[in-house]
Amino acid sequence: MADPEIKSYEPHHESQSAAVTESRPARLALMAVAFAFLGIFLLLPLIIVFNEAFAKGIGAYTEALGNPDTRSAIRLTLLVAAISVPLNIVFGISAAWAIAKFEFKGKAFLTTLIDLPFSVSPVISGLVYVLLFGAQGLLGTWLKAHGIVILFAVPGIVLATIFVTFPFVARELIPLMQEQGNGDEEAALSLGANGWQTFWYVTLPNVKWGLLYGVLLCNARAMGEFGAVSVVSGHIRGLTNTMPLHVEILYNEYNAVGAFAVASLLAGLALVTLVLKTLLEMRYGAEIAATRGH
């Protein structure tokens, strides 16, 4: 009788071999196109950003970053990320837990809503907040009467950032939790653990690497968001400009060194995100693949 493991393996091996039918020149051509595309649209812009940032020397670079408005933009960017990312972690874990572990009416609709920011332009989301919280908006009169300021202030920037980033954590955790099923949680409950103990000691450790992956992407998007924040910030220099908005202002003022100096910080963030993402995928490839639905 044939070994069942060998029987299950052989078709997979044959299908992999059958899938690679291109000739060597064809494979080389495809690789050349891929590398050329990445070189032109990814590596070349990064090189230009850092070259322009240091075009007038390290002194001009540090002076540009030491500008009070620049420091304010950096502080605001970090503040917005520090608020929006933890809130997205709470939402992402809650939504993923509900969708993956329970059956309820409206589950498909909730999943669709989580994907909404991926299909709606960030500018549109910013305009929605203007219609809600602006002086002529739905809640504008009530907010003004109670002295509550949302638009053109930190709260509006945080709300806009949360909107464009909240799918990242949830979308990484939902497939992972669905793949794992409920077996571990049911075992913990049968041994006497309560709901919170099951979550802290079973569910959360099982998804920690997928959670870190989602947080990484969420943080990168939060710091680099432009469209939605641009609409709700009011572009008040030194007060409501995040780093991406400050780059635009400096560039429009023909301050190339200042603009590219701040842009280099954002580019550095992107590179750090890429390195951390790669390390996570290398060490925890199987679990990360599950979070991506593979």
UniProtKB/TrEMBL annotation:
- Name the PROSITE patterns for this protein: ABC_TM1
Q: Write down a Pfam family by its short name.
A: BPD_transp_1
Q: Which residues form the signal peptide?
A: none
- Which membrane topology describes this protein? Multi-pass membrane protein
Which keywords annotate this record?
Cell inner membrane, Cell membrane, Membrane, Sulfate transport, Transmembrane, Transmembrane helix, Transport
Q: Subcellular location, in the record's words?
A: Cell inner membrane
Key word Transport present in the record?
yes
ABC transmembrane type-1 domain location:
74-281
Keyword Transmembrane carried by entry:
yes
Report the superkingdom from the record. Bacteria
GO CC, sorted alphabetically, is:
plasma membrane
GO molecular function list: ABC-type sulfate transporter activity
| Transmembrane regions listed in the UniProt entry | 28-55, 76-100, 120-141, 148-170, 254-276
Main localization, broad class: membrane
User: Which proteins does it associate with, and in what oligomeric form?
Assistant: The complex is composed of two ATP-binding proteins (CysA), two transmembrane proteins (CysT and CysW) and a solute-binding protein (CysP).
Q: Which PANTHER family match?
A: SULFATE TRANSPORT SYSTEM PERMEASE PROTEIN, SULFATE TRANSPORT SYSTEM PERMEASE PROTEIN CYSW
What does the UniProt record say this protein does?
A: Part of the ABC transporter complex CysAWTP (TC 3.A.1.6.1) involved in sulfate/thiosulfate import. Probably responsible for the translocation of the substrate across the membrane.
What's the name of the protein?
Sulfate transport system permease protein CysW
Q: Which organism is it from?
A: Mesorhizobium ciceri
State the gene name recorded for this protein.
cysW
